[in-house]
Design brief:
rod-shaped, about 0% strand
Length: about 180
């Protein structure tokens, strides 16, 4: 949702009442970037439900007012998941125990999910290594694709040279026998 005139009015009201800038308001609402409110007002960020909930929880701004539903900008009874915070004059907030517990809980859930993914990746890596080792062993066994010759002596790099030629003379055959190239 793009910014509405009512949103602009509500943000101006908050800034005047609390002596805040857009940057201060962004930080007071719990956003990490100072420019969050400016980005919403400029239209480069959309208005989210979370943003409206934070305006309601922290400054009693009625989300229905911003959306054009009710004429009242201020809500007297705030029912929100966000605890009331104690603010200094610039709008920076002190985190209370419930927020700390909530942050720790969310961080723990993320860490557990990351840990599960890492464990599964590690298991897949081990499975792959076992498959690779098994494959390499099967290739190195007698009868496997790369089994070496059992003959004594050196074999030449060219396997055709190791084969006896019918035209070889007896002296050539005896020479090959001595080198271990020709088998009986």
């Amino acid at each position: 949702m793009k910014p509405t005139p009512r949103l602009r009015e509500a943000i101006e009201f908050i800034k005047i009442q609390n002596d805040l800038t857009n940057d201060d308001l962004s930080l007071a609402l719990g956003y990490k970037t100072k420019s969050y409110v400016s980005d919403i007002l400029g239209g480069s960020k959309l208005i989210t439900r979370l943003f409206l909930d934070r305006l309601k929880a922290y400054y009693k701004i009625n989300p229905q007012y911003i959306l054009g539903g009710t004429p009242e900008m201020i809500v007297e009874n705030v029912d929100s998941n966000f605890p009331q915070e104690i603010r200094n004059k610039k709008g920076a907030s002190n985190i209370d125990e419930l927020q700390v517990i909530d942050l720790i809980s969310k961080s723990t859930e993320r860490l557990e999910a990351d840990h599960s993914r890492l464990v599964r990746s590690h298991e897949m890596l081990i499975e792959t290594k076992v498959k690779l080792a098994t494959r390499l062993l099967s290739l190195g066994e007698p009868g496997g694709a790369s089994s070496s010759s059992k003959g004594k002596g050196k074999s030449s790099k060219n396997p055709v040279e190791d084969l006896p030629d019918k035209s070889d003379s007896d002296s050539e055959k005896s020479r090959r026998k001595q080198k271990g190239i020709l088998k009986n």
